[in-house]
Design a protein that fits this description.
single chain, alpha/beta, Rossmann fold, 2 domains, 7-stranded mixed β-sheet, 5-stranded parallel β-sheet, 11 helices, 12 strands, disordered N terminus
């Protein structure tokens, strides 16, 4: 049976269930599904998404079209979510808990698939990771993965004498619920105690807050800096890393940044975007073609994390990267 015929059959069957989701509505045969991207994706993320969709056998234009949000990564707002929903999308593909929260506040009917997220249960998006129970599913890169403790360990190992670590934190209200942030802070503080490190967390909600945030971090005199990829100051992230270069201290990030722009963090420890997207798009197909309910699909954790060591960043701060880190790295950028 062709993809179009299978889709027509499955949609007709799911309509009989009277499910309160968009996928239960009849649609004209041969009409591609409209997949909303929130926020809008550019390269290389857009290319990875198309490649992951095509790996499932779906073709752009025939089986799906992407509907780009008019909001960027730093704009996870309810008004932006409402504008995207008004464009009659069949499903939304999102890359943070904040964007999923904004959409979930607007609709309980449109399926939401996260290709990256933090703590969906604490954010109110799911009843549990194993059985979300609502209209949201996908991938979490933080919940239960131990990533924050690992990042502190890597920074501690990166340079002799690291005793104080600053954290430039961009996952902040109003975009991220405070209930979601607390598990991150607990893990960071537990790891800091185990490593006998002093920790200074500086919340930066907007790019305009970067100067004051850096002034506060400078006053704390950190020996290393953890820079998060939250939308709070993502557009000003290179400015934050430049601060660390000026202070000649190592940096680590929880998310591999787009390749454009310097300086880059010394260390990145994160799952690969492409692998996350493959898992998320498999859920997209199961929901739209197979009629699966998002609430029945477990929110999954990445199977692997990659350590990237940037020797250009090491050279910029006059650091000789310990051989133990270089040997463990999945990629070394010369």
């Amino acid at each position: 049976m062709s993809l179009g015929r299978r889709r027509q059959f499955l949609i007709a069957g799911s309509a009989l269930l009277a499910a309160p989701l968009v996928l239960a509505q009849n649609r004209p045969a041969g009409t591609p599904f409209r997949i909303g991207l929130f926020p809008a994706l550019d390269e290389p993320f857009l290319g990875w998404t198309h490649k992951a969709m095509q790996a499932t056998g779906w073709q752009q234009g025939r089986d799906y079209v992407f509907v780009q949000s008019d909001a960027g990564y730093g704009e996870p707002t309810v008004s932006a979510a409402r504008r995207l929903i008004s464009r009659k999308i069949d499903l939304a593909l999102v890359n943070s808990t904040a964007h999923a929260v904004a959409l979930h506040r607007v609709t309980a009917r449109v399926p939401i698939v996260m290709w990256a997220s933090g703590y969906p249960v604490e954010a109110g998006l799911a009843l549990s990771l194993a059985r979300p129970g609502k209209n949201v599913t996908g991938v979490t890169i933080y919940a239960g993965t131990g990533i924050w403790g690992k990042l502190l360990e890597l920074l501690h190992e990166s340079k002799p004498g690291v005793r104080r670590i600053g954290v430039a934190w961009g996952y902040v209200p109003p975009a991220f619920p405070r209930e979601e942030i607390e598990p991150c802070y607990r893990e960071l503080r537990q790891a800091a105690r185990a490593l006998k490190l002093a920790l200074h967390i500086e919340e930066i909600a907007f790019p305009e807050g970067v100067p004051a945030g850096l002034a506060s971090l400078e006053a704390a005199r950190p020996d290393a800096l953890l820079v998060t990829a939250g939308p709070g100051f993502f557009s000003a992230r290179h400015r934050v890393v430049q601060f660390a270069v000026t202070k000649r201290i190592p940096t680590a990030a929880d998310f591999r940044w787009p390749p454009a722009g310097e300086p880059a963090p010394l260390l990145t420890y994160a799952p690969t975007h492409a692998a996350n997207m493959r898992k998320a798009t498999s859920y997209v197909v199961r929901i739209l073609e197979g009629g699966a309910r998002p609430g029945d699909l477990p929110i999954e954790q990445p199977s692997t994390f990659e350590l990237v060591v940037n020797l250009k960043s090491a050279k910029a701060i006059g650091l000789s990267v310990p051989p133990s880190l270089r040997l463990r790295a999945d990629q070394v950028i010369e």
